[in-house]
Amino acid sequence: MHRESYAWNLLGYDRLVIFKNTIYNTSTVDTLFDLALAEYVDSDVMEDGSDQPWGAADDVSGYYKGPGYEFAYTRDADGDDGVAPGWLAHKIIAPADNRCAWFWKAGDGPNDHNPLSFNYAPRLTANEKYHLATGRNPNFNNFEPLRPEEPDVHHYEQPDPKDTRFLNAVYGNQSGTGSGQPLHLAPGASLSYYSVYFMGSSLEDLKQQSLAIESFIEGGLQIGDTAGLACIPYLFPLRYGLDSFTLFWHSYTDPDHFEVKYKVYDDSASTWTSISLPGSTRSYTLGGLDPDIWYQIKVASIYNPGPDEVYLESETRLVNLNNPAAVEDETLPPPLTLKSWPNPFNPETSIAFELRDAGRAKLAIYNAKGQKVRVLLDQELPSGRQVRVWDGRDDWGRPCASGVYFARLSQGDHTQTRKMLLLK
Which of 28, 100, 384, 415 has the fewest CB atoms within 10 Å, i.e. the most exposed one? Predict the structure, then answer.
């Protein structure tokens, strides 16, 4: 099984994580019969860390079914006076529909002790969530269906708040589902499906996101033109010097300006020192720091200064020059990033790239035979984000034929390639 994860720091995309799962039958002779695709979700909607009697014990799980929806969720039953307003949802996007979901009535959920054991006593199964997905003798005293069974009922929510868990499943010999077509995987075959976690503030919010997620995945996870979209700065691991930290961060778009902020970790919030930087900046070195002191460091993006200002912060890092290994790996951000939109395109596409370091860079277009078609740039460039437009023509101004092309960005020993499809 191969699993890829996708996340974005663009505002509007920052509330979801998408997993693409591909199952391979590596046997050349044996079929995998009756596959079950399922995820078990224990999402405790917790309190703010105070001593108030809030927390996971008053959560509820629910399900909303229908084309474009088909998601389970967990929310806090009373919202904890506004402390825990978020709803966490999960959906599986697979090639066909044979779905079911369950929640555990018991507060402690399924028993996970020794799941491979054949000694079930005193339980009916050694691990209910696995056996439930395959219909192998689960204990029905502990759970109930979460996905509405009535054809005309689209929404169901468990009636009593508990420290709830749910199992969201597709296919499988699932007990109580009225069967459905089983899923088999022939020798040498593979199957891909998506598992998506997303956050919302209400059921209607989750429904809108669910529809958007379906379209987003059908479009190949292509965000498209990011112009005008606010982006939460993503802070890469820091580079350590004798008395300095060098910060690197990622942003899809250029804000009005960035602010690098730092303070001694146990000082009050009023002591943050702020350094303003141009919106095209993606790195900065803080020097003259005391190696014996722990610091808090973060980066903020400021869009539209004034009454409509949008202020977005990265995570806050706790760092010390004498203890770099105890805090994080000294891994640098990738030297080059490259993407294009729209893709497929006609007649033109925008190619965006980001350079970690300043220097000479070359961006060229190649056809499917590996022949160079067009050189879009070959020059010295500063670090940061750049955009170039390819109009689908070669170096002589002649229109290129429909087909697959590759944008290749190179700088020094580093290269990045992006496949593009020109359709006419």
Answer: 28
